[in-house]
User: What shape does this take?
Amino acid sequence: KLTYEDVEQPVISDGEILVKIKAASVNHLDLWVRSGHPAYGVKLPHILGSDGSGVVEQIGSDVTNFNEGDKVIIYPTLSCWKCEYCLVGENNLCVSSGTIGASTDGTYAEFVKVPEANAFTIPNNLSFEEAAAFPLTFQTAWHMLRRVDLKAGQNILILAAGSGVGVAALKIAKLFGATTIAAASSDEKLKKASQIGADYV
Assistant: This one.
């Protein structure tokens, strides 16, 4: 059950920023959380939404990378930045990782608070809507392609190339210089895969 209601504005800590949300997108994770998937164990009431973008409304006293008014995209994975994985740059493997919108309240709100490390400046060529559309799917695809150590010149078969993660994998594989083979369930999806850069479908 989803309800639309007023809640208290989040109060930030010294290392956090408060973002006024301009756009948020739906991810399959939101459906798992809503279904009561035991992996997430959220306490109700809970605000969904992992992906979002907006404008910095307020900064904590220790924040150094952002100013009020900056346009930002939210990075959904929460990390401790202290464990062995975080210290070598593998924060997606953090022993105490979580996800905004699952572990904490998320982006389906007027305001969301996030650690400074969980925001990036939006490039000028992206709208708020575009910026909010890809974080979690691209993060998932990036992690998978790093696990297989994809390199330029290699061939990669991307299954479900019409899905969010499939599209992300295709775009990242092309960035790496790989030859991409896209598979999908319909001619329409295959046509779209070709339009966005698949070498073979």
Remarks:
- The chain has a mean pLDDT of 94.
- Helices lie at 28-34, 84-87, 128-132, 135-147, 164-176, 187-195.
- The longest helix spans residues 135-147.
- Strands lie at 16-25, 51-59, 71-74, 77-78, 98-99, 111-115, 119-121, 155-158, 179-182.
